[in-house]
Amino acid sequence: MNTFNYIRSPTDVHEVDGPPNDCVSTVRFSPSGCPYLLLGAASWDKTCRVWQVIHQPNGMNIRSQPMTFAVSDAPILDMSFSADGRVFWGGCSKTATMWNLTTNQKIIVGSHDLPVSCIAHVSSNTGTEILVTGSWDGRLRFWDLRQPMPIKEEILGEPVFGLDAQRSFPMAACVTGRKVHIFNLQTMMKTNELKPPPLLKFNLRCVACSPQKDGVVVGSSEGRLSFIPLQAEVGCTFKAHVLVEDNVLYMHQTNFCVISPRVPHMISGGGDGRIGCWDYKKR
């Protein structure tokens, strides 16, 4: 087993004040270019909440304070920060909203036929802004925030459940059912389609692109986590959130996955209430 840490001790956990009143659908940090370190949470209570986080360079003595929150007319399923601190959210209202934290202005900047399940704000190397939205209507849409209609639409045929586009420009990936779709954000074209390894039997729920752009990590409904390489190398699969208690097998859904930008470590969180770290190069 290549787990190198599970967070168990209460001393490792910082709890924010003013959390949502219902299930949290997404938690996001602001990108590195943002003037402040912000934490955002989207929830089924129809709110999007933002906290400012203060910590020492070594990550110790973490503190946070509630900054602001906004209310939608339906549960919010996903959110994303821009580098200048704007917030974008999508959800069961079937729309994508841009929220200016400075002026508190909220503008609808995109829409789908069914709930918006995934959203990501992306800035290119030239400063061009793209908003990517995925929906249960089986479509991935690319938006220029200056235009009311999408500049590109990809029909995937199945509900979109996970999207990663902000941290690995120009590479982006989304998951539908049991497929991983890879895109080049510079051309907004689909470049590859991957299938999960045989050990993953159920639908995919989350995806993360490798910062080295050499593969993707996916999490599944049965609690597994898998690194799928784009080149001719061997991938790996872990029972990240699968437990055996009293000879009973419990498979908890993998709710999120990310990859460290500095080392080959995958981090996942599951329905078992645990956060695990994995070294996908050691297998």
UniProtKB/TrEMBL annotation:
GO terms for cellular component: ribonucleoprotein complex; ribosome. Gene3D superfamilies: YVTN repeat-like/Quinoprotein amine dehydrogenase. It comes from the Eukaryota. PROSITE patterns: WD_REPEATS_1, WD_REPEATS_2. Transmembrane segments: none annotated. WD repeats lie at residues 109-153. Pfam families: WD40 (PF00400). This is Poly(A) export protein, putative. SUPFAM superfamilies: WD40 repeat-like. It comes from Trypanosoma cruzi (strain CL Brener). Keywords: Repeat, Ribonucleoprotein, Ribosomal protein, WD repeat. PANTHER family: MRNA EXPORT FACTOR AND BUB3 (PTHR10971).
